[in-house]
Amino acid sequence: MFYNLLRGFLYPFLFIFLLFNPKKLKFVLSRLFQDISILDKTKEYIWIHCSSVGEINLTDSLINNFKKNCKYNILITVFTDTGYETAKNKYSNEKNIFILKFPLDDMFILKKIFSQIKVSKVLLIETEIWPNLINLGNKYSKVFIVNGRISNKSFPRYKKISWILKPLFSKIDKFFMQSEDDKNRIITLGACKNKVFVTGNLKFDISFETFSSEDMSNLKNIMNIDSRKIFVAGSTRQGEDSILIDIYKNLKNTLLVIVPRHLERVNEIETLLNSSNLKYKKLTDLEKNSTSERFQVLIVDKMGILRKFYSIADVVFVGGTLVNIGGHSLLEPLFYGKSPIFGPYLQNVKDISKDILNLNIGYKVANKEEFLNTINLLETNPVSEDKIKAFFKSNQNATEKTIKFMEE
């Protein structure tokens, strides 16, 4: 009640602020005023709520499992624009999958959706704690936290508001957590012990794309590789590109490929490269007009293509780890047989990074010298692909466990 009164009080001030920020105004309006009449009313729904691209990708195996049960439609709501576009691209041809932008936990819109369609289950992926969605989900259906995690960074913050979380958690039917640490933390925050289960990480069940040798050869030809090695820096965040450029200057016969996590940073990366006197090209320009001109750095200014670059890479760095973000997917390069190099900030991937380091199939670096030494090590002593495949095989079946506990 207080939550919605506060929202009602703040709405006028929010819209005044948004009038001076057209980009954010568009973001809010597109979520509060969207067409929900597209939802088919003939079947029950499983509602899956995701934050962004990562959560959309890791729910692949869950969605594929639910698709087999023809009695359900699937509603996917997504918070970010990039996540929404990813979902639309993935499922545009699926007649039983409907995609909406998440309506910012607005009680009236959510209530309208619940009253318009029959929802059987609401799945909140990872730690999407939205009070109105949980309260209404509890009233109209069952609510589950799926692939739940509580990072080192967020745990102290959540503890300060555990008095708010505990009554919300009482309305969640079951919590499916990634690890024992995550299980213990959610219980400390107020979840009932009997409702919490460790099911593993859905990321191991992701169906990664495979690329033909022709696809990879075409990509290399566009980049004018010649005999050079390919150093792919994936999902880079602000503050990392300058470090990577400095490291690259010490490498010979190598092309640096920078794939920023957010495309709005492309101009910022261009400025860094210009100040470093490095010749660069943007991928979208190369796709329009291939060139024989030799350049040193490729900026990937296009979404959804990082995995293809991982597949052709000789050296891979995973971003969000040299600055205090917490890390992005370490599994993606591993799937393509490439040992990831990453920095010390790993709170989002803490369990996976520990396993990777214990098995010596990836490398953590703290500075430029360690980074360069690791690149030399990988060149002389690459990790066995069989070792990487065994790592994946031993961690699969999180989807199967999740669905089993959910049905029970």
UniProtKB/TrEMBL annotation:
Source organism, top-level taxon: Bacteria
Domain 3-deoxy-D-manno-octulosonic-acid transferase N-terminal: 40-206
Catalytic activity field: lipid IVA (E. coli) + CMP-3-deoxy-beta-D-manno-octulosonate = alpha-Kdo-(2->6)-lipid IVA (E. coli) + CMP + H(+)
GO MF term list: Kdo transferase activity
Pathway: Bacterial outer membrane biogenesis; LPS core biosynthesis
SUPFAM superfamilies: UDP-Glycosyltransferase/glycogen phosphorylase
Enzyme Commission code(s) on record: 2.4.99.12
Enzyme class: transferase
Keywords: Cell membrane, Glycosyltransferase, Lipopolysaccharide biosynthesis, Membrane, Transferase
One protein family per Pfam: Glycos_transf_N
Compartments, record wording: Cell membrane
Keyword hit for Transferase: yes
Family to which this protein belongs: Belongs to the glycosyltransferase group 1 family.
Entry function: Involved in lipopolysaccharide (LPS) biosynthesis. Catalyzes the transfer of 3-deoxy-D-manno-octulosonate (Kdo) residue(s) from CMP-Kdo to lipid IV(A), the tetraacyldisaccharide-1,4'-bisphosphate precursor of lipid A.
Protein name, entry field: 3-deoxy-D-manno-octulosonic acid transferase
Species in which this protein is naturally found: Candidatus Cetobacterium colombiensis
